[in-house]
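Thread: Modeling a multi-component assembly for a lab meeting

Hi all, long-time lurker, first post. My supervisor asked me to bring a structural picture of a complex we are working on to next week's group meeting, and I have zero experience with this. I have the sequence lines for every component (750 residues in total). Could someone generate the structure of the whole assembly? Inputs are pasted exactly as I received them:
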Amino acid sequence: MSLVNIKIEGIPYQVESGLTILEAARKCGYEIPSLCAFNHGECNQGSCRVCLVEATGARGLVASCVYPVSEGMEIRISTPKAIEARRRSVELLLSNHSKDCQQCDKNGSCELLYVAQLTGAREKAYEGVHSETTLDVLAPALIRDTSKCILCGRCIARCQNAHGLSVLGFENRGFNTIVAPAQNRSFQNSPCIQCGQCVSVCPTGALMEKSEIDKVDDALRSGKHVVIQAAPAVRAAIGEEFGYPVGTPTTGKMIAAMRRLGFERVYDVNFGADLTIMEEGTELLGRIKNGGVLPMITSCSPGWINYAECNYADLLPHVSSCKSPHQMQGAIIKSYWAKQNGYDPKEVFVVSVMPCVAKKFEKDRPMMEHDGIRDVDAVITTRELAKMIRRSGIRYDMLPDEDWDQDIMGDYTGAAVIFGVTGGVMEAALRTVYYKLTGKEYGKITFDEVRGHDAGVREATLDINGTKVSVAIASGMKSAKILLDEIRAGKSKYQFIEIMGCPGGCINGGGQPYIRPVFLPHEDDDILDTYKEKRAKALYSEDERQTLRQSHKNPQVIELYEKFLGEPNSHLAHELLHTHYEGREAFR
Amino acid sequence: MAKLQEKAVAQIKEICSRYKNEKTPLMMILSDIQNEYGYIPLEVQELVSAETGISVAEIYGVVTFYSFFSLNPKGKYIIGCCLGTACYVKGAQNVIDKFSEILGIKPGQTTSDGLFTLDALRCIGACGIAPAVSISGTVYPKMSVDKVPAIIKELREKEGAL
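Re: Modeling a multi-component assembly
Sure thing. I ran the full set together rather than chain by chain. Output:
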């Protein structure tokens, strides 16, 4: 690593060569206002011109996010010329922006508003023509509003990096340029898998989840029995919305908050996750024993299911027929739970809190119901739950730690908690499959071989009582594609594959709190590199704290089978807990 | 989504295969398709995407960025009116307006008989003979509004459309 000598505001520094001015300045203690640049060059088009500085050797001002440092360079951030130029850049962006900040859902985490305040941009410095806008609200999970788009290209880069998909692209030219799926189509009629990774990087309100808070409010007002259930990954991240360091599990406070919001019961989707393992594990063993289609692939991630239906319809028989945990649990709440409580299922309303926006799409799938009763009625993201807590005046930090409602579905095991991280469903399944094949528990409980917190394929071969089980794990469709192409070519050596839509699994879902270093002043500069690992750790530590760590040991799951379902994969279990998939065209 | 004819599918695949060894084959593929068919609809872009692995959104972006590419069929005669600075000050706007008026189409559109497409061009490098109009490769120098009706008439007669 070679070093170069530079000066910032006349003060000498030594920095690594090859860094951009923006990165070098950051290491020296300067945060140059910037907007389009994101995540160590994951996106740096140099398009927004907000990070302009003066640098010797350059003609005019340079965009510091793309201009590299060089020996002897003198950089000036604070000259009147640079300050004026940065302000003007923001004012020009604002001149073609809808500026309805007060009613914008992104308010509070909008980076454009942040740099506008930082640079002192005047709202109406430039008045002129606005480009034609598109508002896409057709998709159940996502909203695209081009009136708020600053054409930074972060979403395009993320879709490509995570999934190799590039559903979004720049269209047309000059003033008419927009970011859109081909033909400016709706996400609903494009190859979009509605994972929401684009939402999690968008600096403005141009890409957002479709909020269902109003739907939840209506249900609470209606006098129905409103039950809320939260997925494992939510607890690992929601604390971030209330100023806790990234990776702080705040499960007890989250439960207390949900109870104070007026929900009749507060349940953990972990019960549904344990149930999923019983069903999926049994399905896997059945396929192995009876010569069924292998490898079997997990079905918990609706982003992945969307991808499979659009791109690998021929491989759908490989996908487990199990519904995802919250859909299973919703189906049980509307049947067994309602009956136990003497409620009419039509009067029960189930809200799922998910780290995911694709779950909004999933719950609307036609097959996610039984006898005309929908499994789940509303899905809100981790961010939306935080919004509901904030507007209710609840001081999150002052809440006591409370526990889930315990009546029928309160028990859960450590195996369920780790569903939220890539490799977790696999590990949970292996813990139970090992027991089913050997009649005893796996000694050290954990299967560290399958653990991780990032995209990329991992694989392991386990010897279970002489039966060799080869497994593989992928998250993000770019990695999944490698495994799927192997299956298609008849070259897959695995029996069981876990695929999650988002890189790193649900901890990095499209509905999780935004990771924006400028809004997280107490985190290290490298938080964009470490947040997945930190959130994963929060889940693994909760697993370790559990006395029960294998799904088949969950006493209430056992009871549910004894009293209601019969046995895993029974006829009733199939009716309530399993589903099917259909291939469809990418451009419909 | 409409289905492409088998013959067209085969030919587009052949065009894609011409540039198999190129690092960035997209522009060349699209140029060949544009020249062959006169336009590049979404169905064709999907096929090019499947053959090259480049996303449809990216291909669509390129097609809509360059005015050379077209999403819709173009007419037999493409009337390109230069609106570059030199042509513009010499009255090119009036010339293109006259074409618009006679043909009943706006720039970018094609007549319903498929004969004419009217395009507004930026500088075509013929400033010395401004205002210049290029019709399917033939350049008409020092154009004026008065000359427009005769040119249209001549081309229509040639096609037996009068």
